[in-house]
UniProtKB/TrEMBL annotation:
Coiled coil: none annotated. InterPro entries: Pop5/Rpp14/Rnp2-like (IPR002759), RNase_P/MRP_POP5 (IPR016819), Rnp2-like_sf (IPR038085). Component of nuclear RNase P and RNase MRP ribonucleoproteins. RNase P consists of a catalytic RNA moiety and 10 different protein chains; POP1, POP4, POP5, POP7, RPP14, RPP21, RPP25, RPP30, RPP38 and RPP40. Within the RNase P complex, POP1, POP7 and RPP25 form the 'finger' subcomplex, POP5, RPP14, RPP40 and homodimeric RPP30 form the 'palm' subcomplex, and RPP21, POP4 and RPP38 form the 'wrist' subcomplex. All subunits of the RNase P complex interact with the catalytic RNA. Several subunits of RNase P are also part of the RNase MRP complex. It is found in: Nucleus, Nucleolus. One of its GO terms (biological process) is tRNA 5'-leader removal. It comes from Himantopus himantopus (Black-winged stilt). Component of ribonuclease P, a protein complex that generates mature tRNA molecules by cleaving their 5'-ends. Also a component of the MRP ribonuclease complex, which cleaves pre-rRNA sequences. This is Ribonuclease P/MRP protein subunit POP5. Belongs to the eukaryotic/archaeal RNase P protein component 2 family.
């Protein structure tokens, strides 16, 4: 069997609207590694660096999917609250990472994200002020579905998601 991995779904939270522009794989990866090093030292960083990668990133929604070895995902998760900023274009933007879900496959994280987005949109729908806003959000709600276009990278079903 392939190495057991965990996928950690996070959202980037920042007061600075310009922060979204600098969200890129490299910046997120560096910020997370730096936080792991600060919290767990060289040993923790070495453990977490094995197969650690930023698998998916959506700068518009601030959604980030991190991958690491199953043995060390707790080390990774415990360091995420210590991410304080992202660097991009020689600028530093204060931000934090909020862990939304930890899953055994990319697919379980996708399913969780769809449900999460649907709930967020429902809350927005309840706070709508006009009909145009309401129509836009309803359209977004209808587009929340999982399409069958899977990645060809081979790590879709790394393990069955059971601890």
């Amino acid at each position: 069997a392939a190495l057991s991995r965990r996928y950690v779904l996070c959202e980037v939270i920042s007061e600075d609207p310009r922060c979204r522009q600098c969200i890129e794989d490299r910046a997120v990866g560096l910020a997370v590694r730096e936080a792991i090093g600060r919290v767990h030292g060289d040993y923790g960083l070495a453990c977490c660096s094995i197969s650690f990668t930023v698998k998916y990133l959506n700068a518009y929604t601030g959604t980030v999917l991190l991958r690491c070895r199953k043995d060390f995902y707790r080390l990774l998760c415990s360091a995420l609250p210590f991410v304080r900023q992202l660097e991009g274009r020689a600028q530093r933007y204060p931000c934090s990472l909020n862990t939304l879900h930890v899953g055994g496959t990319i697919r379980t994280c996708q399913k969780f994200l769809i449900q999460y987005n649907r709930r967020q949109l429902m809350m927005l729908l309840q706070n709508c002020t006009n009909e145009e806003e309401r129509r836009c959000i309803q359209k977004s709600l209808l587009s929340c579905s999982l399409t069958e276009e899977q990645s060809q990278s081979g790590d879709e079903e790394d393990d069955d998601g059971i601890e």
